[in-house]
Automatic annotation (TrEMBL), chain A:
NCBIfam families assigned to the protein according to its UniProt record, in alphabetical order: ant_ant_sig (TIGR00377)
Pfam families, per database record: STAS (PF01740)
Cited PANTHER family: ANTI-SIGMA FACTOR ANTAGONIST TM_1081-RELATED, ANTI-SIGMA FACTOR ANTAGONIST TM_1081-RELATED-RELATED
Domain STAS residue range list: 22-118
Species: Sphaerisporangium corydalis
Family statement: Belongs to the anti-sigma-factor antagonist family.
Protein name, as recorded: Anti-sigma factor antagonist
InterPro entries: Anti-sigma_ant, STAS_dom, STAS_dom_sf
Domain of life: Bacteria
UniProtKB/TrEMBL annotation, chain B:
Histidine kinase/HSP90-like ATPase domain ranges (all copies): 16-126
Keyword set includes ATP-binding: yes
CDD domains cross-referenced by the UniProt entry: HATPase_RsbW-like (cd16936)
Organism: Sphaerisporangium corydalis
Name of this protein: ATP-binding protein
Domain of life: Bacteria
Keyword Oxidoreductase among record annotations: no
Length: 121, 136
């Protein structure tokens, strides 16, 4: 399965941190969504409140992946935080637009811009 | 290939949907689909097969055929939980985590039809080969 989740190790995100960046690569689907779910649960365990998810190298996303994104949005909203999505490529943007996700999340051209827009913690 | 409904490709459903997507993409491309409409059909088949994994014990298969007007992909299970009315599923909206597969298939394909018989249920996904949306 061609999918990976990379936790961005920016210095500002030393654990435990209210902010975390996840960089997704490859195809997010029924088989790979549990990998993302585990990375999200790690982040919740580290008291993460603000999540930036870089999807610029995500080549496929199905409704299982969408369920995971929406679950993250719900989990972090319950902590007065949120999820920002960065780097939507045309393929991902189409599925996000069709399903209404593009409106449900704050989206940014890059992860750096998404981080810069977060409230100071 | 002759428009008679003859099955011209067959794949079993396995846990690895990326393999199935690859088969479907090559098949539909060779039939004449390209671009977004090709990607949309591949995603719709993925959704139907994911439903088989989630709701029908993962037991099912995929058949494909085409003529000079349509590519048709049929995703069948052995459980038969789907009935024709499920094809009219509404958009669950972003407040609901799951259950958007069938609605999404309808956004992606020209035609989504569910049949149910003694063998189980089948979701038939059809994409026209030209860009003109087809009625009914």
């Amino acid at each position: 399965m061609n999918f990976s989740v990379h936790v961005d190790a920016a210095p500002a995100e030393a654990r435990p941190s209210p902010m975390r960046t996840l960089v997704l690569t490859g195809e997010l689907d029924h088989g790979s969504a549990p990998h993302l779910q585990r990375a999200l649960e790690d982040a919740y365990g580290d008291r993460c409140r603000h999540l930036v998810i870089d999807v610029s190298d995500l080549t496929f996303c199905d409704s299982t992946g969408i369920s995971v994104f929406l679950g993250a949005r719900r989990a972090l909203a319950a902590r007065d935080g949120g999820v920002a999505l960065a780097g939507l490529n045309p393929r991902i943007e189409r599925i996000f637009r069709l399903t209404g996700l593009a409106r449900a999340f704050d989206t940014y051209p890059t992860a750096a811009e998404a981080r810069a827009a977060l409230p100071a913690s | 290939m002759d428009g008679s409904g003859r099955v011209s490709a067959y794949w079993p459903i396995t846990d690895d949907l990326s393999v199935l997507r690859g088969f479907v993409e090559v098949y539909a491309m060779q039939a004449g689909l390209s671009g977004i409409r090709l990607q949309d059909l591949v995603l719709a088949v993925n959704e139907a097969a994911a439903n088989v994994l989630d709701h029908a014990h993962g037991e099912g298969d995929v058949e494909a055929w085409h003529d000079d007007r349509y590519v048709t992909i049929e995703v069948s299970d052995r459980l038969g939980l789907l009935v024709p009315a499920h094809a009219d599923a509404g958009n669950p909206g972003v407040g609901t985590l799951r259950g958007r597969g069938l609605w999404l298939m309808r956004q992606l394909c020209d035609e989504v039809r569910i049949t149910r018989g003694p063998q189980g249920s089948a979701v038939r996904l059809r994409q026209a080969l030209d860009d003109t949306p087809t009625p009914g």
